[in-house]
Amino acid sequence: MAGRPVYNDDMRIFVTAGNTQVPIDRVRCITNIFTGRTGASIALEAYRRGHEVTLATSHPEVIDAVDPDPLRWRCLPYRTFDDLHAIMAGQIGASKPDAIVHCAAVSDYLSAGVFAPSQAGNCLTMHDRSAAKVKSDEPELWLKLVRAPKLVDKIRSDWKFAGVLVKFKLEVGITQEQLRAIAEKSRQHSVADWMVANTLEDARAWALIGNESGYEKVTREELPGALLDRIEVQHG
User: Buried b vs exposed e over 30-62: b needs ≥16 C-beta within 10 Å?
Assistant: First the structure.
């Protein structure tokens, strides 16, 4: 989109960014590789344009060098999946943002226990080894994982959000054509207005932005501005 579009007024924008941790015990966790830089850059672009921004991030250090106006900027740090879940429930329900950019790389599974297996004949027995700090004296441990609730799917259904919703989707080892098809199906499932999709292999170079009207390929540098253009037009 050429230039910055005209819209009616400034918005309240809620952005999630970064990775979530799933605790195994009090000192160990499962997480992922994402740093929250993309979400932070989108939040900062929204702030630069005059919007009121709340950024929930697991990596607040990414914006340490920024000194924003506290009247238009809030940073809510989180660590675990449960932390982010609680922040989103509170922010979406109480603050009533105009737009949500759900960029956080949220865990798909939660830990449901740590077990040591033992075999007696054909009988396999699992012994619960869950603890504040799981001991390291077992030759083998099995970690039980259960499906986590999809936080993005709660935004419309549980939290009754009616504003502009942006969802993110990452895939690995697929073509751009496959990515478009997967992204659009995912967008529709979550009733999102816009989808931002990319592949792990090219995540530093480009992303796709779009909806049922089509998808545009933009560079990583163009992404924050291109996304805010679309949000502003829809809101205005």
Answer: bbeebbbbbbbbbbbbbbebebbbbbbbbbbeb
